Amino acid sequence: MDSYAHAQTVNIFIQEIEHALGLGPTKQCPLREFLTIYIKNIFLNQVLAEINKEIEGVTKASDPLKILANADTMKMLGVQRPLLQSTVIVEKTVQDLMNLMHDLSAYSDQFLNMVCVKLQDYKDTCTTAYRGIAQSDEKLVISASWAKDDDITRLLKSLPNWINMAQPKQLRPKREEEEDFIRAAFGKESEVLIGNLGDKLIPQQEILRDVSDLKALANMHESLEWLAGRTKAAFSNLPTAQTTLCLLSSRVHCFHYLIPLAKQGNYAIVANVESMDYDPLVVRLNKDISAIEEAMSASLQQHKFQYIFEGLGHLISCILINGAQYFKRISESGIKKMCRNIFILQQNLTNITMSREADLDFA
Question: Which cellular components does GO assign to this protein (predicted)?
Fold first, then answer.
């Protein structure tokens, strides 16, 4: 997509100019202001026009299910089975839009909407093409009719060959008891299909006689499975980055409060009212941890919530132990105050993780 390459180059160029001029986030160079207007008024429409032209060029062909990607494309993608040229173009379009979402993040909503619309359009294209094969004279061929039968599809998905297709394993000799199980399972399939047909004859027009139609269906299957995998992989990186950022943010809060506590705190104190108080930095850290806990518990599944907080006690312990080198002097009252600080943090984390934060005992 030419527009993507140009936008990426200009964006990098502007960043270099702003860095050279020492401009902060509150002041932009005139070129960036021009680019913002250009993107809103021209670029977004230009991107949409380009992807429409690319996709329609392969999906509006007379028989899109018969046009396959060439050998060089297949080799570059590292796939072993033919893919539809239309699927390859759609996947490339999705990747280009994902790159634009990253490089022009202020417009990520618009680019994401384009991704969703194009994927839905392609799904509709494939559905129409499938119906063109599965229907004869406005009536489903018998195999397509059976494919829509819930009882038949439920049975087929329980058979060994479906399981092997969905989760392929290396070929290995079958043990005798496995063969008996498989034979019984396929016997059930035969029984259901024979019972479903009864004593009816199948008219010629209800059979898929053209093998090229079956080949087209097989190509569509491999292509859509590949597209689904690539799209899922592209989007799965986003939630991974988000949970990682949440985890690291909780860690950064600990560094933010506890390093000054060690470097600037006064623990060479005598026994007085002040020595009985928690350190203000610890109180603020505890408040932040509780706020993060409240936000995460309302938003994340339990195992992901646990991921954010597990190990936090160990990090706090390490920061405090490493920070001890900065204490020039520490009195008995100072030790007691630090113990109270550790205890309140330990108590809060224990309530969050529902397990005793033993790592803080070492601090």
Answer: exocyst; growth cone membrane; synapse
H runs (alpha helix) in the chain: 2-21, 30-38, 44-59, 71-77, 85-103, 108-134, 142-147, 150-158, 160-166, 176-197, 211-264, 280-299, 302-309, 312-323, 332-353
CA distance linking residue 306 with residue 352, whole number of Å: 9
Q: Which amino acid is at 219?
A: N
The predicted-structure confidence for 80-114, as pLDDT tens digits, reads as follows 889 999 999 999 999 999 888 888 888 889 998 99
Tokens 């936090």, residue located: 312
Does position 79 have pLDDT exceeding 60, yes or no?
yes
CA atoms of 221 and 231, how far apart (whole Å) = 15
| Matching residue, tokens 């706020």 | 291
Q: Interhelix angle for 85-103 vs 211-264, to 10°? A: 20
Radius of gyration of the chain (CA): 31
Q: Is 84 helix (H, G, I), strand (E, B) or coil?
A: strand
Q: Which pLDDT score is estimated for 110?
A: 92
Classify residue 279 by its DSSP letter: P
C-alpha to C-alpha distance for 272 and 243, rounded to whole angstroms: 44
Q: What angle do CA 140, 145, 147 make, to 5 degrees?
A: 130
The SS3 call for residue 127 is helix
